[in-house]
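Support reply, case 0932

Customer input (verbatim):
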Amino acid sequence: MPCGCKQDMSEPQGFFWMKFVGKPNGKLMKGAPGNYVHGKTYKQPYGMSRYPFWQLVEEPPALTVPDASGRDSVFEDMVFVPDEGAAIIEEVPRPTEVAGANVDPDAPAVIEPYMKLNLRTGQMSEATQTVVTPSPPPQEIAVKVPKPEPAAPESPPPKTRDELKAILDERGIKYSTKARTETLAKLVEQLPE
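Our regenerated output:
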């Protein structure tokens, strides 16, 4: 809707006669508009009948849906449903039962042993002889295991805060007493050997 208001689509459309009862005992009801005369009928949209200060004078028309007919169907053709007894189920022979077929599970998936392409005509025809090529036995593959590289020399264990302070005091380096231990360790690393 262009106005952005919410409207129930099941409500009847159009205007209906409604009686304004918004000033009982001469006092305006809360939320009622003040520009209507109490007891007078006005044409209002059906949604206004939800407010307590409007009463419908006439009943809205009942919305009814006619029963569906065959013409209302969206399907153009009839659907064929076979009888249960009419269905024939055939058993498909398994590949092992086919005469002359290579059923080796290790055989590569190719049609060459079964079909032959005639290069002159471009037609596929059945091969006159079935050629079965055995697959080669699995070979052992040597795997090179790389030798572990020598580990880097281990760094000396981190020093305690007191040891770091003692080293800096010996060298005469000034530092803050509130400095972090990591900062003290960096200062010690930067000292010339």
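We compared this against your earlier run and they match. Two observations from our side: Residues 161-190 form one domain. The mean pLDDT is 74. Please reopen the case if you see a mismatch on your end.
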